Each structure stands twice: as C-alpha cells, then as structure tokens.
Amino acid sequence: MAVLAEAQGKLGTAVSEYKEFRPHGSPDEQLVVDQRLDELGRRKMKISGAYKRQIALSATTMTLGLGSIGGAAALFAIMVRNSNRAEEYSDAADQADSLYNTTMNPVYQTEAAEFRAEAASLTKRRTGMLYGGVYLAIFGLLLTAYSIIPLRNAVKSKRQLDGINLGKTRLKWNGGAGVTLRF
Predict the structure, then answer these.
(1) Which of 78, 86, 108, 120 could form a disulfide with 100 if both were Cys (CB 3.0 to 4.6 A apart)?
(2) Is residue 171 one of the residues assigned to a domain?
(3) Which structural domain, as residue segments, surrounds residue 34?
(4) pLDDT tens per residue, range 13-41
(5) Is 27 contained in some domain?
(6) Does the keyword Transmembrane apply (predicted)?
C-alpha cells in the first residue's frame, strides 16, 4: 500500500503505511522502510517549503495588488475633489471679474488672476492624478491576477502532501475553487 501511495504522490498516506508496516518486516525490509521514510521526509520538507513560499508569494502580491488598487481609488477621489475645487476657483474668479467690471477696483482684478492661476494649477494636477490612477489601477489588477498563480500551485502542493500539517500555516481545499487559509 505504501508503494502505491508513493507512486500516486500521496506522501502522507505512504509515510503512514510505511510506519504501519515497519514493525512487521524483516530487518532488511525495515532498513528499506527506513530509507524510504527518510527519502519521503526530505521530499515532504521540500514540498512543504515550496508550499509555504507559494503562499507567501501569493499573499504578498495580492496585498500589493489590492493596495495599488486602493491607491488608484484614492487618487481618483482626490482628482474629483481637485476638479470641484478648480470649478470653485473659476467661479470665484468670474465673480471677482464681475466686481472689477462694476467697481473698477484693481484688487478684484488681482484676485481674479490669482483664482484663475489656482484653478489652472488644480486642473494640471488633476490630469497627472488621472494618469497615475489609471497606471496604478492597471498595475494593481495585474499583480492581483498574478497572485492567483502561486495560490493555485499551493493548492496543488497541498493535494500532493495529502493532509500534512505544516506548522502554523495550513491550506485546506474546500472543493471546487474554495480554499481556506489558516494561520
């Protein structure tokens, strides 16, 4: 049974079958079982190390991707706020111009010029934020999509390990596309 489980890639089952068989085998068979257990132990450590790295890579890239998407959303919100402020400054400049036209006071003309300059500055920043937000959103979406690949590989490794507990981190396949990650 252990040899079949090992051939199928069910390392956890193979180890338990070898351990169950060992007390009943001859000294030569026990030596072979010990060798197989040692080899399987090294393979399990290698697979579990890859499994942990895949989970860490997936979690890191997903966090960075979602953070980038959040940053893009913040840039878009600031861009909208700057757009509203630019409109307010333009309206204030129009009011200062109308006051200058009625009173001919040069202070209103200066205020109108300052308001228009501030509105132009906000409009220029708004354009930069639009491009930055778009690039950041694309980067975040690509990172988030990429994070699925190592997670999928971790699920495959988990299936191969056949229920081996990897310490504090454990990935449990729920069937289908459902995965539960416990720390």
Answers:
(1) 108
(2) no
(3) 2-161
(4) 888 888 998 898 888 888 988 998 888 88
(5) yes
(6) yes
Look-up: residue for tokens 């009625």?
102
Q: Which two tokens stand for residue 121?
A: 């500055």
Question: What's the number of domains the chain is made of?
Answer: 1
Residue 167 in any domain: the answer is no
CB 90 within 8 A of CB 134: no
Amino acid at 49: G
pTM of the predicted model over 0.90 = no
What is the DSSP-derived secondary structure letter of residue 116? H
List CB contacts of 177: < 8 A, sequence separation 6 or more.
Answer: none
Cα dist from 90 to 105, 107, 118, whole Å: 19, 17, 9
Q: What per-residue confidence (pLDDT) applies to 100?
A: 81
Q: For residue 180, name the pLDDT band (cuts at 50, 70, 90).
A: low
Q: How many residues does the chain have?
A: 183
Q: Say how far apart CA 35 and CA 41 lie, in whole Å.
A: 10
In this structure, what is the dihedral angle of CA atoms 78, 82, 88, 89, given to the nearest 10 degrees? 150
